[in-house]
Design goal:
Layout: H1 6-27, H2 29-32, H3 37-48, E1 52-63, E2 69-78, E3 82-89, E4 97-101, E5 104-108, E6 114-117, H4 133-137, E7 146-156, E8 159-168, E9 177-183, E10 189-195, E11 201-208, E12 211-213, E13 216-218, E14 221-226, E15 232-243, H5 254-258
Antiparallel strand pairs: 1-2, 1-15, 2-3, 3-4, 4-5, 5-6, 7-8, 8-9, 9-10, 10-11, 11-14, 12-13, 14-15
């Protein structure tokens, strides 16, 4: 009986390992690729947070069957704690500006008169929209403020999604609980239910479309529905967006806020 050469034995071993690897890829992908709820949330946070952002957007505020109130605005953001926004149209709102510095929020009229928005005023709708000032203040990673649990897995608008439940780590968050549908392919949060401490759903946030900016995926449109308002919704359409570019430091200043016009 002829003895197999060393090269034949090595070749057979290589083929055996290749077949085993193929079988593992076919039959156990869910085990190999399993992610913890924390990892899923972290991947979502990486898509939705940024070092810097500059956007031009269109806001459409719908009330019942009336024509929407349409506004355009430009916004600059640095990480989660600094944002400067200016409304470009319509004429009655042109030049109105907002400045967020940490947990402080200021508004300036077109003439340059400045007021600080605080306390119960933060719950009011920004420009009478479904977004409150508190909603606009939230920009940092969810994992910083919420504990996360994976509670389900289901399709949404034809996209396979994980469902995460987020509960506040300590009292004081705008919403004590969030339920988030995260698309598996893009890690974008496609739907978010926002809950009061008593367990009622206060608002529903939907994020539609997918735009690509370098290695980042970002929604093309977001829709907020305040369930306390009948037949009301606010849509924000992103017309232009840039991420990661250097922004002048003087944008985020009280002096810039006080400029008129």
């Amino acid at each position: 009986m002829k003895q197999k050469s060393q090269s034949c034995v090595m070749s057979e071993k290589w083929h055996a390992w290749a077949i085993l690897g193929l079988l593992l890829t076919i039959f156990v992908p869910k085990i190999a690729l399993a992610q913890t709820p924390e990892e899923i949330l972290d991947s979502m946070d990486r898509q939705m947070t940024f070092d810097s952002r500059h956007v031009i957007a269109r806001m459409e505020i719908y009330k019942g069957t009336a024509e929407p109130d349409v506004k355009r605005l430009e916004m600059w953001s640095k990480e989660w704690d600094s944002t400067f926004s200016v409304f470009l149209s319509p004429e009655r709102d042109k030049g109105v500006r907002y400045l967020k510095l940490g947990d402080q929020l200021y508004m300036a009229s077109a003439a340059g008169d400045v007021v600080q928005i605080s306390g119960h005023m933060l719950r009011n709708g920004l420009m009478d929209s479904d977004f409150s000032y508190e909603d606009m203040m939230e920009a940092r990673a969810m994992k910083a403020d919420y504990n996360v649990t994976l509670i389900g897995d289901e399709p949404l608008e034809g996209k396979s999604c994980w469902i995460l439940e987020l509960n506040e780590k300590k009292p004081g968050q705008t919403y004590s609980k969030r339920k988030v549908w995260i698309e598996k392919e893009t890690y974008l949060p496609r739907k978010t239910e926002l809950y009061a401490k008593g367990g009622d759903v206060l608002k529903i946030l939907t994020q539609l479309g997918t735009a690509t900016y370098g290695d980042r995926k970002y929604p093309e449109k977001i829709i907020m529905r305040d369930l306390s308002k009948k037949d009301s919704r606010t849509e924000i359409h992103f017309e232009k967006a840039d991420f990661g570019k250097q922004l002048p430091e003087n944008i985020f200043s009280r002096r810039n806020l006080r400029k008129s016009g």
